[in-house]
Structures are given as C-alpha cells and as structure tokens.
Amino acid sequence: MVLRHRRAVARWALASGRPVHRDALAAIIGARADSLSAPADLDGPTAWVGEQIGELLWGDISSWCGERSARVPEPDDIARTLHTYLRYLSAHRLLAAGSDPVTLLRRAIADYGGDRGRRRHPSTGRRVAPVVPIA
Hints:
Blueprint: H1 2-16, H2 22-35, H3 50-67, H4 75-91, H5 102-111
Helix pairs in contact: 1-2, 2-3, 2-4, 3-5, 4-5
C-alpha cells in the first residue's frame, strides 16, 4: 500500500513538473503511514493540520529513518518534497474534512523551519547598491 502510494505521488510529481526527492518522499510517506491507524488509510482522505507539519519535520521523519538505519534527507529536500506531497493530496482530494487549507499547511513548513532554502526576492536583500559619482 505504502509503496503504491509513493509511486503514484512520484509519477504525479514528475508529470506535473514538481520537485520530488525519492528518499524524502519515502521518509514523509513512511512516517505519515506510521502515524495512521493503518497504512491502507493513505489510499483515502486523511486529515492534516498545521501542528502535524512540525511533528513530521522535527520528530516523525527522524524517528522513521532511525528505525530503519536510513540517512535522514536534507531539510531542503524534505521541505520541497512535502510541498509537492501536499499539492498531490489536494489535487487528488485526499485531504479529509477538517484538514487545514493547503496554503496554511505549506506555510507551516516554512514556520517550522523546513523551508530555509527559499530564495528571497532581490529587493528584500540587505546589500546596498554602490553609489557612483557622476562626473
């Protein structure tokens, strides 16, 4: 069940041009499956709330990888893949009633520190433009 779900997400991500990291996806879906009453629940709608994002990023994924003696994927890979996974769940109507909106869930990734690699717009940088005297 978990492997089939993971493959479906990966195929959708590739077809949609969304970033997906294989190891990060395995850790996210594996940790999520462990938190459900049955892994088969991944085939139907599941509830997601913002607080779960922090637990997933800072505890569940590390625990899941540790139990399998697997390397924990890089935080940026996890963040980008989790963004893609949430989009997949939304596109396939797999977010159960009572879930937070996808925008709030995606914002929670950044709030919990999982999206530190985002590039900022150049206008928000702190570098000052050089002043060149006009002759």
